[in-house]
Write a structure and sequence with these properties.
Shape: elongated
Number of domains: 3
Order of helices and strands: HEEEEHHHHHHHHHHEEHEHHHHHH
Number of helices: 18
Structural class: alpha+beta
CATH superfamily of the largest domain: Intergrase catalytic core
Strand content: 5-15%
CATH architecture of the largest domain: Orthogonal Bundle
Strand order of the largest sheet: 1-2-3-4
């Protein structure tokens, strides 16, 4: 029988891998060369030696180790292997903890995020953690019913975030479907709420389509008294009609004025992860007016990475609110013109005012491609020659509008 003093003073002799001090009935203290001490109980299931770890000394005292041994012996005498019972208990506890909405939600996110775009993965977890986990996160997945989920979604509705409420219903549905697939629940209450939320009417980005108003906007941009980089970003938005994010994040490495081309890498384009990984870079022909703007900018920002760097730090690009703030400062509010509206302006005006330009050419310039792997595989037309010509015609048309010159009339429809 051991004493507490013997346990406390025991050390492993030099040169030995371990020292074992027996206490009786299979209990022993194992001392490692490093000085660590652990309790074990030795027993013989099926005639073969096995052992059960009971904890470290002195965290587990001699008295506590004996009690743990006696409890393990009683389990063994009942016909149950205590080592296997411990594994089963750990697995049961792990499974129990992983049946809550938050545990399953985070597990689902971890499983799926490698196949999502980084932005979507970040947005998914941020939204769910903000609005669903605080109210449902600690509840077992199988205990959550449709009225409980609806009550949480109503909270989001009440603050006016209708689209987010619909998104959250979809996100919750993904978690419940994953729970069904992995045996954590049997029903998906989110599917019962398809018609329960208020309808969300999609509001398109405000855009000017009247040539006279567009001319006024272009003159306002020319007279803008803010940062010259902001002024140039607005002017290029009109000339190139690319997504605001691609304008703001434009890098000098993408610009080849000699080839009259802007190349936006696939990873920077809007789309799902498959498209970002397997798609082609988006090529944007540059009209002489666009090249002149970039040449004027190069002495200001050409030493850095971004064509339009943040005024606070050149390590980041222009913030996403800068262009809309500039438009507002010029008198163009959210109900008249937004940065994304330059795309709708160009698409509408080119098809209505400039003759001979097919819609497919405009769509290619907008980077609107058929979705999905098959669409990407077969829809490879880039219409580069037509797009080069279109961008020159468009830039010249904007010049006419800017000076208040000839406004090209609407193309009369065939009788």
């Amino acid at each position: 029988m051991l004493t507490d003093s013997e346990c406390r003073k025991a050390v492993c002799p030099p040169g030995k891998p371990r020292l074992r001090l027996s206490d009786g009935a299979g209990l022993y203290l194992e001392i490692a060369p490093t000085g660590s001490k652990r309790w074990f109980w030795k027993f013989y299931p099926d005639g073969k030696e096995s052992r059960l770890a009971l904890g470290s000394y002195p965290d587990i005292s001699l008295k506590a180790a004996r009690q743990a041994r006696d409890e393990a012996r009683r389990t063994r005498q009942s016909g149950v292997n205590p080592a296997q019972q411990r594994k089963a208990d750990k697995l049961s506890l792990k499974t129990s903890n992983a049946t809550t909405f938050e545990a399953v939600g985070r597990e689902f996110h971890e499983e799926k995020r490698s196949g999502w775009s980084p932005n979507h993965a970040k947005q998914w977890l941020r939204c769910v953690a903000k609005d669903l986990f605080p109210h449902l996160g600690s509840l077992p997945l199988s205990s959550i019913k449709a009225p409980m989920l609806l009550d949480v979604l109503r909270r989001v509705e009440k603050r006016g975030a209708l689209q987010q409420a619909h998104d959250l219903r979809g996100y919750a549905g993904q978690v419940f479907r994953y729970g069904i697939q992995t045996g954590r629940c049997e029903t998906n209450p989110a599917s019962d709420l398809v018609q329960a939320l208020k309808a969300h009417t999609v509001k398109h980005h405000s855009a000017l389509v009247d040539p006279v108003q567009i001319g006024g906007l272009l003159r306002a941009i020319d007279s803008y008294s803010g940062q010259p980089t902001t002024q140039a970003a607005l002017a290029l938005s009109a000339l190139l009609f690319q997504r605001p994010g691609n304008i703001r994040a434009m890098e000098w490495a993408w610009v080849d004025t000699a080839a009259e081309m802007l190349t936006i890498p696939t990873a920077n384009m809007k789309g799902k992860l498959y498209a970002k990984t397997n798609g082609r870079p988006h090529l944007v022909p540059l009209a002489p007016q666009a090249i002149a703007l970039l040449d004027d900018l190069r002495p200001l920002t050409g030493h850095g990475r971004y064509v339009f760097p943040s005024i606070r730090t050149g390590e980041r690009c222009m913030s996403d609110g800068t262009l809309n703030a500039a438009l507002s400062a010029m008198g163009y509010g959210s109900d008249s013109m937004r940065a994304h509206g330059f795309r709708a302006t160009a698409r509408t005006v080119i098809i209505e005012r400039l003759s001979g330009i097919p819609m497919d050419v405009i769509e290619a310039q907008l980077a609107h491609r058929k979705s999905g792997p098959l669409g990407m595989a077969y829809d490879r037309a880039d219409y580069m020659d037509q797009r080069r010509a279109m961008m020159v015609v468009w830039a010249e048309y904007l010049d006419k509008l800017r000076v208040g010159g000839q406004v090209v009339p609407l193309i009369p429809k065939a009788a």
